[in-house]
Amino acid sequence: MPRPRVRCRYARGVSSTDPRIAVIVVAAGSGTRLGAGAPKAFVRLAGRTLLERSVHALRGMRTLPQVIVVAPADRLEEAAAVGEAALGSPVVVVAGGETRQRSVAAGLARLAPSVEVVLVHDAARALTPAALFDAVVDAVEATGGGVVPGLPVSDTIKRVDEGGTVRETVDRSELAAVQTPQGFPRAQLAAAYEAATTDETDDAGLVAAAGHPVTVVPGDAHAFKITTPWDLRRAEELLAGALPPRIGFGTDTHAFDPAAELWLAGLHWPGEQGLAGHSDGDAVAHAIVDALLAAAGLGDIGGVFGTGDPRFSGAHGEVFLRETRRLVEAEGYRIGNISVQLVGNRPKFAPRRQEAEALLSELLGAPVAVSATTTDGLGFTGRGEGVAAFATALLVR
What does the alpha-carbon distance between residue 359 and residue 161 come to, in Å, rounded to a whole number? Predict the structure, then answer.
């Protein structure tokens, strides 16, 4: 008798009020082995939580599915906010159970009536590409049964006894290291959970135990599970290698103000004529801030700090630099290096250049090179009316 076929029509980027596909994202684990002091799904990977990255991948599916996030009971509001921001639309959030199996069962209870295909995915597999989700859906439709992605086992596998003695070598040609998402016709998965009397290690095992066929399709190396600190470092290195560096350019200009003290490149210059501005007029610091914000796609100094904000009246460049570094790092970047050129007749910068570079490098946690030049008497800087600064910043993931 032919197996039932589940047919879903879906077009990339299209969502539906009656979804026929659902993804249950399991994010209720404690993450003890990761040792990050937080539930695993809420640990940050290059500036974003594992949960955020897992849900964000679903935006690349051919259709936006119903997304159900199973989270720790004390993190439901946070999970809802993270999930909605990552998906671009609301997600269903439910508290997890004492075991993974009970957590998935809690997610199954919240499926929309229209759902026909259910994918179960571990938030710890945060780099899983959207294409793998689509491939699993396609295979469920084609076979009418359960589908799991898997990779060939490359290591030699030994079966050992309790004392560590090798008893036999397992034929690895018959083995596959399975991943998530695992996909199933809704009716089969729901029936398997209703009939379950023991805990299985994954959903495919539960469905197979209920007598339903499960097929393995090619997995993806990026879908590895982040369980230990080494796994997290590996994921960070993959992201750093996959994403190109970003470059930003910034500039700032200030006129001299005889009534002000001069602060430039983070340094105080006693006896020198100061620069006019809402803050301390540090053109070098401000140009750096603009370059960093531009590279991170965060706008500019006026938009982020506001020239009319009384909190920054008279504030020194150090205040802006520290906060900008925090904002950049929160976006998942680190500062690679910065180059700044100061244009003006005064002050004489060369004697304090190394001091300025050391201070700026310490504040930003990256090498900062500062040079100075004049315009041979041309323009407002040549006439001694003020200074200008131009900065370039490099950010890496």
Answer: 61
What is the second-level CATH architecture of the domain 14-242?
Alpha-Beta Complex (3.90)
Over residues 43-99, the pLDDT tens digits come to 998 888 999 999 999 988 988 899 999 999 999 999 999 999 999 889 999 999 989
- Taking the domain 246-396, which CATH number applies? 3.30.1330.50
Cα distance between residue 114 and residue 110, in whole Å:
12
* Residue extents of the structural domains in the chain: 14-242, 246-396
pLDDT tens profile 22-44: 999 999 877 666 766 778 899 99
Percent of the chain with pLDDT over 70: 91
